[in-house]
Amino acid sequence: MARKIGLFLLILVAGGAVDAAWFIRRDVGVNFGSSGCHGGYGRFSGPAYSFQAEQRHPLAKGDTLEVVNTHGDVNVSQGGGSEVRVVVRKVVYRQTEAEARELADQVHLVIDGSGRVRVTTNRDDLERARPDAGFDTHLDLSVPSGVSVVVRNEHGSVSVADVATAQIDDVNSEVRVERVAGAVQVNSQHADITISEVRGALTLTSRHGDVEVSDVDGVSSLDTEHGDVTVKRVHAATLEAKFGTLRFEDVRGDLEVRAQHAEVEADAVDGKAAIATSMNGVTVRRVSGEAHLATEHGSIDATDVGGALQASASFDDVTLAQVAGPVDVTVTHGGLRARLLQKGGRVTASGGRVVVDGFAGPLEIQNERGDVELHPASALREPLIARTTFGDVRVQVPPGSQMRLDASSPGGELDIDVPGLALTRSEGPRATGVLGTAANDVRLFADHGRVRVSPALGKSDASNDGGDDDKGDEGGKDDSES
Q1: Secondary structure letter of residue 476 according to DSSP
Q2: C-alpha–C-alpha distance, residues 279 and 367, integer Å
Q3: pTM of the model
Q4: Which alpha helices (DSSP H) does 372-441 contain, by range?
Q5: Residue 404 and residue 462 in contact, taking contact as beta carbons nearer than 8 Å
Q6: Which of 133, 258, 326, 444 might form a disulfide with 345, Cβ 3.0–4.6 angstroms?
Q7: Cα separation of 264 and 462, whole Å?
Q8: pLDDT, position 458
């Protein structure tokens, strides 16, 4: 009985293999012949045979060359003289070479026009007469200098170099454009795109493919979905994107990014940076102008910003360093770590810790369910407001500071010990006082938390600060991190 069951299973497996082979041959189009195997679909399957032909047509500087192809690669490069030279490589799918040659002899280049010269093939006519005809036409074109090029190619790669302007549409394979004297336009589907050395403006739309852009003198306007984007050494750039990793380096003008489900990284922006994304983080470094950064469900990390900074994040933290202008930060379900804020600013946070290490200028902080820890860069001479609920407020006061202090901690406690501070009130959860000839208000409020005001300490001392309170271990860790 066991042998019969085994034999039955073997028959089922063998039958399934036969069915699978027939499916592959019929629908996927993998055929075998004396010339080898070619994987494809329908009429673009079977043994492949290649044939070549050449044709020339007058074309002068200032003319436009339009290339229309359906199946096959298109390569355009600069040549000499005053004509376009077209070499067509016809790849024909037939069971025998004789059948392939007979079909190839019917495939012709069609070149016509003056001023705007059109290059294509007689594919439409041939396919109407022979619906089973399967062939690719790969076109290599050599053009005079100063020619503008328009390429429409549905199934095949496109390469264009050393032309006046370039427009590329309907591409579903690799695109490469380089050394263009004027503007470039690209519209592609399911294609990786590489563009470099463009003296004019760049306009690009890409779906389902990676994009690399470098050395563009004009404005770059990009629209991408489902692909990574890398942009280097360009003038002002704008990008709308969905799903991908977006990287910018050496932008010599303003940068504007509107994205969804994308990580954004920008380094060296000589202008303003306006970046908004979601479900991922934003990282910027070395922005000479203002920075406006926003993300939902992601972090923000900004370093070396030459102007004002506005940042909005949720469900992650904001990290800032070396910001020359005032900051305006809103972070929901996250915290802030900042250092070297040269002109202070405003911070609204919830659900995380706020630490500012080294700041000047007026500063206002509103936090919920988290601590606030502040270390001024120099003597306090500007207004300071820090409020939190269910957390502590800690401020270190450098030598030479002046302030009118108003501190309160309902439901918590006060710890105020600053040399030279003359307390004018110290009752229950509130204390007021004056340090120096103060004209600046320092208001500290912790609801169900602790307000601690102490002298600024050296780093070695600060790492051990807080050992006398109930959060001694946590306090020591916080100070060393800041």
Answers
A1: H
A2: 23
A3: 0.84
A4: none
A5: no
A6: 326
A7: 36
A8: 59
